[in-house]
Amino acid sequence: ESLSISLAILGQQCEIASQPSFTAGETLCVQATVSQNDNPITGEIVTSSTDLASLSVDSKITDSNGVAQIS
Predict the structure, then answer these.
(1) Which class for 38: exposed (0-12), middle (13-18), buried (19 or more C-beta within 10 A)?
(2) CA dihedral 50, 26, 70, 1 (to 10 degrees)
(3) What pTM was estimated for this model as a whole?
(4) In Å, what is the CA distance from 11 to each residue of 27, 35, 69, 71?
(5) What is the average pLDDT across 6-19?
């Protein structure tokens, strides 16, 4: 079965941002939620890359809620 991934742009401290946008030089957090049949997937490696910014890490492992946050 296939996995489902949803992405969200959050604020500096990985909190819900009032406006999901940012300017150059601003810190933000990207949250990936991985699930299968609406059940969170724990221990899945989420890899990210961008040409627009620098990332604190290139990959993160999902937690018990299926969430990986990268800033």
Answers:
(1) exposed
(2) -60
(3) 0.80
(4) 8, 23, 11, 9
(5) 85
